[in-house]
Structures are given as structure tokens and as C-alpha cells.
TrEMBL record:
One of its GO terms (cellular component) is outer membrane-bounded periplasmic space. CDD domains: PBP2_Fbp_like_1. Keywords: Signal. This is Putative 2-aminoethylphosphonate ABC transporter substrate-binding protein. GO terms for molecular function: thiamine binding; thiamine pyrophosphate binding. The keyword Ribonucleoprotein does not apply.
């Protein structure tokens, strides 16, 4: 038989345990959960989430990740009943479309004036804020090229030479932001008629249009195809992994886009969403971005990247009209698909 005082202690322990569970449950319930649609690379997702949630322990990020084109289509399909709170790490050409559709909340984050203004929306207050720049690159497998006796291309137009037939992969512009920045850069550089003629000729040499901006460089790195049109983040990563690739920056100029963040206008968590966009504009967030990107929005933070030339920023096609790319997206993708979709990778 238990002593009455022991019974009392046991009762207290049970009560305290129950109180602890209630308190923990209340704490979990008080945490704001932000649904964030993103196209950032999976390499970066964990670092952003960990650092932000450490700075804001009462806010939790729940990611929905896919390629830029898929995320853009998802947001547009949900326009009447938005599900996301924030869109983060999505192409400026897509964010401009969301802005034109009146889906983004105008907001100037804390610290915005510290950022390079050319890499954000030009409206004031901005509808979206830039994080980093990504640009086109050609990944060239030197080992496979030697086996196949392929010369090293120096330009976009070199890629139309018959020697490269069936040797090139490229991102599909409807699903990949990288594919879309390539197409819109060519259209802006050369004009519509010449650009479509170029893409007709390039199409003859393309083996497959894949649904990711990263995949063509990974394919080149593994030797599946000797040439992959990709972007510098993934090219740098594949090169660092030891793959026998050389990074080629075509001399005519590079298509490019900006990864940015914006708040969905109908979010029920405006304050938490603003805190996330504030944090993405911070030096700390830009320092994380600088692990992978040669150009970030916060001046002086970017590092020298292996394989990326010193004049990389000067190679970016200018002007690059994101509003034009957004307004003409449906027209461009319809025409592109009509001409080239027969070589699209299955799926999506």
C-alpha cells in the first residue's frame, strides 16, 4: 500500500506531465505555418529553412517545390483560390506575370535599400524582390567529345552545326525557367524571325528537351549526352563534383533571370509572410545564396566561383525585359511547342 505522500507526488507528476503536453501542444498550435511555393534547388532549401526558423522560431516553412514552369502554372491555376502564402526563388519573368495578374502584395522589405535595385521589381513599393541571378551556360563533356571527335563550341550558333546532331539536350521552356530564359534571350537578341530560324536549326541537333534546368548539365557530366544547355549554378556544382566538363559561355551573350520572392496577396498570414521576405532580403540570406550563385542581390557578398569568368555579369544580355517575357509567355510557349514539342521528355 502506497504512502499518502507518495500518492500525492505521483498525482503531481501526472498533472505536470499533462500540463507539459498541453503546453507543448499549445506551442505547436501557436506556430505560424507558411506554405511556400519554390523552384530553388533542393541543395539550398534546407539551409534557408534552418536559418530562417532559427531567426523566427514561431514561423515554420512548408515547401512545395517544382520547376519554375510547373510552379507558375500551379499558381495561375489557383488564382481564384490561392493556396500559397509566399512564392520564393521563382523566376522574375514568372513573378512579373503574377504581378500583372494582381496576385502579389506590394511590399518593400526591411533592408531593401541595401540591395542592388536592378535585381528587383522596379515598381515602388516592389511587388517582388530579387535574391540572385542565374544565367545560361553550355556544359561540354571533354572526354566524350574527344571520343566522338566533337569540336568545342564557342557560340550559340556553333550549336547548329551538323557535327552536333543528336548530341545536345536543353531544358523545356514550358517547365523550366532556364529553358524559358534561353528562348526569350534569343528572341530579344536577334529579333523574332532570326531567333525562330535559329531555334529551328538548333532543334535538328537536340536529342531531347528535358523538364529541368539542371538535368542537361548532369547528363553532360555523366556522359549521357556530351552537350547540355543549362545554368551556371548547376554547372558549377557538376564541375566541382569532378565531372569532366568545361563550362562554355557563348560569346553572343547569355540569357538570364532573377530568382525572387513575393507575397501572395490573399495570404491569411501577412505578418509572417513579410518576415520571410524581410529575411530573404537580409545579408544573412544572401550569404547563403552566395554558396551557389555568382551574383546575389546584396552587394559585396558574392564569391569567386570555379569555372565562372570574371566578366560573367557583363555577358548577361541587356536589356532583359521581364515584363515583355511575362506578357508574351503564352504566345511564345505555344509557338515553341508547336515547332519542337515532338522531342520533349515524357512527363509534366
Amino acid at each position: 500500500m502506497k504512502h499518502p505522500f507518495a500518492k500525492f507526488l505521483q498525482s503531481c507528476a501526472v498533472a505536470l506531465s499533462a500540463f507539459g503536453l498541453v503546453a507543448a501542444d499549445a506551442s505547436a498550435q501557436s506556430k505560424t505555418s507558411l506554405l511556400v511555393y519554390t523552384a530553388i534547388e533542393t541543395d539550398a532549401m534546407k539551409m534557408y529553412k534552418t536559418a530562417f526558423e532559427k531567426a523566427h522560431p514561431n514561423i515554420e516553412i512548408r515547401w512545395v517545390r517544382d520547376s519554375t514552369g510547373v510552379i507558375t502554372a500551379k499558381l495561375m491555376s489557383e488564382k481564384a483560390n490561392p493556396q500559397a502564402d509566399v512564392v520564393l526563388g521563382v523566376a522574375a519573368s514568372s513573378l512579373a506575370l503574377l504581378s500583372q495578374e494582381n496576385m502579389l502584395l506590394p511590399y518593400e522589405p526591411a533592408g531593401f535599400k541595401e540591395l542592388n535595385q536592378m535585381f528587383s521589381d522596379q515598381k515602388r513599393p516592389p511587388h517582388w524582390v530579387g535574391m540572385d541571378v542565374w544565367g545560361a551556360v553550355v556544359c561540354f563533356n571533354t572526354v566524350e567529345a574527344k571520343k566522338l571527335n566533337l569540336p568545342k563550341p564557342e557560340s550559340w550558333k556553333d550549336l547548329t552545326k551538323p557535327v552536333y546532331r543528336g548530341k545536345i539536350t536543353m531544358p523545356h521552356p514550358a517547365s523550366s525557367g532556364t529553358g524559358y530564359l534561353d528562348v526569350t534571350a534569343w528572341l530579344q537578341m536577334w529579333g523574332e524571325q532570326q531567333a525562330w530560324q535559329y531555334m529551328d536549326a538548333l532543334h535538328e541537333n537536340v536529342a531531347q528537351y528535358v523538364h529541368s534546368g539542371s538535368k542537361p548539365c548532369k547528363q553532360a557530366g555523366s556522359g549521357e549526352f556530351p552537350i547540355g544547355i543549362s545554368f551556371e549554378f548547376r554547372a558549377h556544382q557538376v564541375l566541382r563534383s569532378g565531372a569532366p566538363i568545361e563550362l562554355i559561355f557563348p560569346k553572343e551573350g547569355l540569357g538570364w533571370d532573377i530568382e525572387g520572392s513575393g507575397i501572395i496577396k490573399q495570404t491569411k498570414h501577412v505578418d509572417a509572410a513579410k518576415k520571410l521576405v524581410d529575411w530573404m532580403a537580409s545579408k544573412e540570406a544572401n550569404q547563403i545564396s552566395a554558396n551557389w550563385w555568382a551574383i546575389v542581390a546584396y552587394p559585396g557578398v558574392a564569391k569567386k566561383m570555379e569555372g565562372i569568368p570574371e566578366n560573367y555579369e557583363a555577358l548577361l544580355v541587356k536589356p532583359n525585359d521581364f515584363d515583355w517575357a511575362a506578357k508574351n509567355r503564352d504566345r511564345i510557349l505555344t509557338e515553341w511547342s508547336k515547332r519542337y514539342n515532338a522531342k520533349a521528355e515524357p512527363g509534366k
